[in-house]
């Protein structure tokens, strides 16, 4: 099992002058370009990040995120130690299981866990032949469980440069900025009983249980209300209370909690209506709080507002130990190995790791600004084309982000 990260050798070309640098080098560089600012005066802070690239395009986009972290960290006096571990299809192929013990151990010992993607790969285009406990997705479900993360934050933020990349009209998507908070540790994904059986007619059946306890709703609800207090003060809780008992309890608990937050404006919306409203008038949302399975579906719908799933990062938080950060896309075997994957969700996930995991806002902002700048320069991957844009591959996009980080973003943008 490799522990030292080989991501440097992954093929991203860093111009020699952009190699992550020491404080001394940075101050020399800032004299030269007059732009780089480094706030490091004391010895560097250190963090250990467990990096689980996973499979498929996870192995292509993860190095971009890691290099962005490394460079932005070095500019702000932070050293990262990256421990690369196996998960998903890659773990299954190498060790026979999708979530090896070593991966769990390294994850628990880290300051934050970064996971690229899991799913089917070119080598294994279907995992239907595998028993359920060996499927690649099990790696993802297990790590979420093991870290005890129960709130999944999926920001739906539209970059102004990408307005033409969405399949929706500019008037609908412009200035959209909301946060989906998906419950991540319960509901239909984990409820018991579940399984297969035979009904009274002798037919085969398959069944799962949607079940929520009051404490499960409360803990994720609190994250939503706290976040709304930091944003525009609105929570829209999405359920299917007209039909499902689990939703009735959900709605009741969220309503009780709202009494603690008189400044927050709480509304409830049925899940089918919300699917429609996300497309009709997404600007109405600030914090959208919902269950595990509804959040899974609605976040893919909402991703299209931003240009597509290649733009959607996520943070899985709330656990007692290290938190988990994962771009939302699957492993996309159809484009694996072609260097066309969009690394922006992966890099935006690194931003979330810094912001919500390590609370290193200055580094987060640096990377965010670099992404903004790279888009300003006209670089796009092929999934987010806009008129007149330069369509580049995953590696090139990564190089441009590093260039923006190092030389192009003026320091006045950093605040
Ligand atoms: C997601 C994914 C996962 C989920 C799958 C891969 C298990 O679709 O993160 O949205 O359903 O949670
Ligand atoms: Mn999903």
Q: Specify Rg, calculated over alpha carbons.
A: 22 Å
Mean residue pLDDT:
91
**Roughly how many Å apart are the termini?**
41 Å
Structural class, from helix and strand content?
A: alpha/beta
Name the ligand types.
3-isopropylmalic acid, manganese (II) ion
Uncertain parts: 1-11, 14-37
Total number of strands: 14
Kindly report the oligomeric state of this protein: single chain
Secondary structure tally, helices:
13
**Helix share of residues?**
25-40%
What pattern of helices and strands is seen along the backbone? Answer: HEHEHHEHEHEEEHEHEHEHEEHHEEH
The biggest beta sheet is recorded as: 10 strands, mixed
In the sheet with the most strands, the strands line up as 2-1-3-12-11-4-5-10-8-9
Tell me the strand percentage band.
15-25%
Shape from CA axes?
A: globular
Helix-strand blueprint:
Elements: H1 23-33, E1 45-54, H2 58-75, E2 78-84, H3 88-95, H4 101-108, E3 112-117, H5 136-147, E4 151-157, H6 170-173, E5 177-183, E6 195-198, E7 204-207, H7 214-230, E8 234-239, H8 245-258, E9 265-270, H9 271-280, E10 287-290, H10 292-306, E11 315-317, E12 323-325, H11 344-358, H12 361-376, E13 379-380, E14 390-391, H13 394-408
Parallel strand pairs: 1-2, 1-3, 3-12, 5-10, 8-9, 8-10, 13-14
Antiparallel strand pairs: 4-5, 4-11, 6-7, 11-12
Helix pairs in contact: 2-11, 2-12, 2-13, 3-5, 7-8, 9-10, 11-12, 12-13
Bound molecules: 3-isopropylmalic acid (IPM) and manganese (II) ion.
Manganese (II) ion (MN) binds at residues 296, 300.
């Amino acid at each position: 099992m490799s522990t030292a990260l080989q991501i440097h050798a992954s093929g991203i070309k860093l111009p020699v002058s952009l190699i992550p640098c020491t404080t001394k080098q940075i101050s020399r560089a800032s004299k030269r370009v007059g732009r780089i600012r480094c706030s490091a005066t004391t010895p560097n802070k250190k963090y250990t990040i467990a990096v689980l690239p996973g499979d498929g395009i996870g192995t292509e986009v993860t190095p971009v995120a890691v290099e962005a972290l490394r460079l932005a960290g070095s500019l702000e006096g932070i050293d990262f130690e990256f421990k690369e571990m196996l998960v998903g299809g890659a773990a299954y192929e190498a060790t026979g299981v999708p979530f090896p013990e070593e991966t769990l151990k390294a994850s628990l010992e880290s300051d934050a866990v970064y996971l690229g993607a899991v799913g089917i790969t070119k080598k294994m285009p279907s995992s239907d032949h595998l028993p359920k406990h060996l499927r690649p997705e099990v790696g993802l479900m297990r790590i979420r469980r093991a870290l005890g993360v129960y709130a999944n934050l999926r920001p739906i933020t539209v970059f102004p440069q990408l307005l033409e990349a969405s399949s929706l009209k500019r008037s609908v998507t412009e200035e959209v900025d909301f946060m989906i908070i998906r419950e991540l540790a319960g509901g239909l994904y984990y409820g018991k009983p579940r399984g297969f059986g035979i009904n009274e007619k002798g037919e085969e059946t398959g069944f799962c249980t949607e079940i929520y306890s009051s404490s499960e709703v409360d803990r994720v609800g609190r994250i939503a209300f706290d976040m709304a207090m930091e944003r525009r003060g609105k929570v829209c809780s999405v359920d299917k209370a007209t039909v499902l008992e689990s939703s009735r309890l959900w709605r009741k608990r969220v309503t009780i909690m709202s009494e603690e937050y008189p400044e927050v404006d709480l509304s409830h919306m049925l899940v089918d209506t919300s699917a429609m409203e996300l497309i009709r008038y997404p600007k109405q949302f600030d914090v959208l709080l919902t269950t595990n399975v509804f959040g899974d579906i609605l976040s893919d719908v909402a991703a299209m507002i931003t240009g597509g799933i290649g733009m959607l990062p996520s943070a899985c938080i709330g656990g007692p130990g290290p938190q988990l950060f994962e771009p939302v896309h699957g492993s996309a075997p159809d484009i694996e190995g072609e260097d066309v994957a969009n690394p922006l969700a992966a890099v935006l996930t690194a931003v979330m790791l810094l912001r919500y995991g390590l609370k290193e806002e200055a580094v987060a902002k640096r990377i965010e600004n670099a992404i903004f700048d790279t888009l300003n320069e006209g670089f796009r991957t092929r999934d987010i084309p806009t008129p007149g844009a330069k369509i580049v591959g995953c590696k090139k996009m990564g190089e441009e982000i590093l260039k923006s980080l190092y030389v192009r973003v003026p320091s006045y943008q950093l605040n």
